[in-house]
């Protein structure tokens, strides 16, 4: 009797597959309605975001600042008018008269308090050294949004030529307001750059214009949904405007990653003969699980920023977690529904057929995939060389970070043409001391004039003190102003903060000011950083163990991912701190890195590295479960995902580089730094270091003690279920062929 090979039965869709494919049109219609609502809810989010958040709200400097704002509004000016007399002196009668009229007009504006000027106080700190410029200082009350609205209302009548003088506007409120506007403008430009370039790259990867539009659609849904989430959060907490950049970058980048992985696997199953619903089921049980693990690992890295008190960092956690979960949800719910409706039409409009004849292979299964497989074999044959050499190069690239100096964000984040930057730079260059950047000492408790005078004399004798002004007394509260020599936040100024706090006084003292806020921020970061790193490491180890069932692979993943970030940190210091390429990249180097930026960049880049790591490890694990041949599984994993990971990394790097075209230095640093980290991870670590290390560890890579093996069997998730590409007789023949190849090598 002749044996007839019959195709394997089409598996019935499981619970999740049945849920997302039962009514695909209804699912997509609901998504459309929710997206429209998200547009309506999140359209005004940019106007409600803040541009600060670098300070620790529980620090001594924050307490003192709030107390001084309450008791002595004129001690905390956030608005500066730079009055330029041209060739005349600021003491010229005509100039002085116009300046006094400006001062009176400003004092009469609603929402403005504590107005003072050189012409009122005669303070030499408010007069330039050449005598041709002087300052009017005031405080605009209210939160950032209210202060910005007040500034927009009063600025047009103050700015420009006023009789014999010219007036420019600076100060903290002007810097933050101008930064917020520039970031929103730059974000719109970045989206206009990234979207068309991303679409072209997706068409290049997929060939099919239909398949290329799916990842882009998922990304847009994730971005719009996250904007609505951020808009809701502004009702309860402060959110930084910088978070919008991360929303755009991760929304496009991760949604494209997830959709690439799912669409690629779906097309694989279709080409192997599966029907669309069955192909979606297999895709969700394999690539879908990987997407779920990837989203969890990225969300964990971003959630670590919730440990820190600064709302600048917490905002990125809010935005990042929301956009990751929405991107994963859209990829696992909306995308399968679209694929069921499209079926084989997902391959429609294959633009590559215009340039090639015949069938166009999948990028990860054709010649490109074979090239990745051959590269993996080469790396594993010389594993010690590639492991040692790659590690040495990465550590070398990271060496500049050993010289990092931490500072605070100021007006130099803005382009040199920005008005508030121009004003602050003229103050730095032409005024004695550091007007607006001094240290304030809040003194609480009853004291006599003699006690105040004795304390003032003692702190005036400290090193690095240029001058001490005050005290101004209000009841049992007083404050002193200490002007340090040199820059407001350089190391002597930070050292002076510690000396002032250690100085003995017959009353309670609290030091605030720019340098004090920086010292407190650094202390808060140092205190909480170990907890954040431990959280990322422990949860990542658990998640990767649940994916692989191995004890060694999670350790490798954490260590290699951290190593992949060295080039980013080295480049950040070499370029943005030391000022190399500042002319080419068009920014002003401050000689320091803002304290929170390295933490932010680590959390984002580590999460993205784990994203690519999960993609690769899941495919290696799937093949190892199928064959039990270690090196063959590594080769197969790179063969199947190398091109995909590289394409995803290039697309994400394009998005981040578009963000990096921002005129605000911190945003430029974030975009370009993470773009470098992503490319180094995909093209160096995943391509060279991972296969070399896995070859060195051999079959021990998959070892786990018996209790953990049982734990993984019960709770772990993997991609080991059969698919149409490895089932039946054809699958058995393929396994036998691969085993012979592995044995022969």
Summary?
The chain has 745 residues and is of the alpha+beta class.
Q: Can you offer a commentary on this structure?
A:
The protein has 745 residues and is of the alpha+beta class. Helix content is 63%, strand content 8%. The protein contains 25 helices and 11 strands. The chain has helices spanning 15-21, 24-42, 60-71, 93-107, 118-121, 144-158, 172-206, 209-233, 243-271, 276-303, 311-342, 367-381, 383-397, 419-430, 449-460, 491-502, 514-548, 552-564, 566-577, 582-585, 597-627, 630-659, 665-697, 706-715, 728-744, and strands at residues 79-84, 112-117, 133-140, 160-162, 165-170, 406-407, 439-444, 465-474, 477-484, 508-513, 593-594. The chain has a 5-stranded antiparallel sheet with strand order 2-3-1-5-4, sandwiched between helices. A 4-stranded antiparallel sheet has the order 8-9-7-10, sandwiched between helices. A two-stranded parallel sheet has the order 6-11. A hairpin with a 2-residue loop joins strand 8 (465-474) and strand 9. The chain is elongated, with a radius of gyration of 30 Å. The relative contact order is 0.12. Residues 1-13, 357-366 and 719-745 have low confidence and may be disordered.
């Amino acid at each position: 009797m002749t044996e007839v090979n019959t195709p394997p039965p089409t598996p019935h869709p499981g619970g999740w597959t049945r849920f997302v494919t039962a009514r695909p049109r209804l699912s997509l219609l609901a998504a459309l309605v929710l997206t429209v609502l998200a547009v309506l809810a999140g359209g005004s989010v940019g106007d409600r975001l803040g541009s600060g958040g670098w300070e620790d709200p529980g620090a001594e400097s924050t307490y003192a600042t709030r107390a001084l704002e309450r008791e002595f509004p004129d001690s905390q000016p956030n608005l500066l008018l730079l009055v330029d007399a041209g060739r005349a002196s600021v003491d010229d009668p005509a100039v002085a008269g116009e300046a006094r009229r400006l001062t009176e007009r400003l004092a009469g504006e609603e929402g403005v308090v504590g107005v003072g000027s050189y012409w009122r106080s005669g303070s030499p700190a408010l007069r330039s050294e050449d005598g041709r410029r002087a300052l009017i200082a005031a405080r605009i009350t209210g939160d950032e949004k209210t202060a910005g609205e007040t500034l927009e209302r009063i600025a047009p009548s103050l700015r420009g030529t006023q009789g014999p003088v010219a007036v420019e506007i600076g100060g903290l409120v002007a810097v933050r307001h101008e930064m917020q506007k520039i970031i929103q403008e730059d974000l719109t430009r970045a989206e206009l750059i990234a979207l068309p370039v991303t679409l072209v790259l997706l068409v290049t990867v997929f060939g099919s214009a239909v398949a290329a539009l799916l990842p882009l659609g998922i990304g847009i849904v994730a971005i719009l949904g996250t904007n609505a989430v951020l808009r809701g959060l502004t009702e309860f907490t402060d959110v930084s405007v910088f978070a919008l950049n991360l929303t755009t970058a991760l929304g496009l980048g991760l949604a494209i990653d997830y959709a690439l992985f799912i669409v690629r696997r779906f097309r694989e199953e279709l080409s192997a003969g599966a029907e669309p619903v069955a192909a979606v089921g297999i895709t969700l049980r394999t690539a879908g699980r990987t997407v779920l693990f990837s989203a969890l690992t990225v969300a964990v890295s971003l959630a670590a920023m919730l440990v820190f008190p600064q709302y600048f960092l917490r905002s990125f956690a809010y935005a990042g977690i929301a956009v990751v979960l929405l991107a994963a949800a859209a990829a696992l719910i909306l995308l399968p529904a679209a694929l069921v409706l499209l079926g084989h039409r997902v391959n429609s409009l294959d633009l590559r057929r215009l340039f090639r004849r015949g069938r166009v292979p999948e990028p990860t299964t054709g010649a490109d995939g074979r090239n990745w497989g051959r590269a993996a074999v080469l790396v594993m044959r010389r594993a010690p060389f590639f492991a040692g050499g790659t590690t040495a190069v990465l550590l070398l690239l990271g060496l500049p970070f050993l010289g990092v100096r931490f500072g605070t964000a100021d007006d130099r984040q803005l382009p040199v043409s920005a008005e508030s930057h121009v004003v602050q730079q003229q103050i730095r260059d032409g005024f004695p001391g550091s007007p607006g950047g001094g240290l304030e000492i809040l003194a609480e408790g009853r004291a006599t004039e003699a006690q105040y005078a004795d304390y003032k004399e003692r702190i005036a004798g400290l090193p690095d003190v240029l001058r001490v002004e005050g005290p101004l007394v209000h009841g049992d509260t007083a404050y002193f102003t200490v002007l340090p020599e040199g820059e407001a936040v350089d190391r002597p100024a930070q050292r002076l903060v510690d000396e002032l706090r250690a100085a003995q006084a017959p009353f309670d003292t609290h030091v605030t000011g720019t340098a004090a806020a920086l010292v407190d921020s650094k202390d808060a970061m140092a205190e909480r950083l170990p907890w954040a790193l431990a959280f990322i490491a422990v949860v990542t180890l658990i998640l990767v163990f649940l994916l692989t069932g191995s004890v060694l692979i999670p350790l490798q993943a954490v260590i290699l991912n951290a190593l992949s970030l060295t080039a980013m940190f080295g480049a950040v210091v070499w370029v943005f701190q030391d000022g190399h390429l500042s002319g080419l990249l068009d920014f002003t180097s401050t000689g320091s890195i803002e304290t929170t930026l390295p933490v932010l960049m680590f959390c984002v880049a580590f999460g993205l590295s784990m994203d690519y790591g999960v993609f690769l490890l899941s495919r290696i694990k799937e093949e190892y479960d199928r064959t039990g041949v270690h090196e063959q599984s590594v080769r197969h994993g790179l063969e199947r995902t190398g091109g995909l990971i590289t394409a995803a990394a290039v697309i994400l790097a394009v998005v981040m580089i578009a963000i990096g075209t921002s005129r605000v230095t911190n945003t430029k640093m974030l975009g370009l730094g993470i773009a470098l980290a992503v490319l180094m991870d995909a093209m160096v670590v995943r391509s060279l270091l991972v296969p070399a290390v896995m070859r060195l560890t051999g079959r021990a890579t998959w070892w786990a003690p018996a209790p953990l093996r049982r734990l993984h069997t019960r709770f772990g998730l993997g991609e080991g279920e059969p698919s149409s590409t490895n089932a039946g007789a054809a699958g058995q023949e393929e396994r036998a062929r691969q085993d012979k190849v592995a044995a022969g090598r």
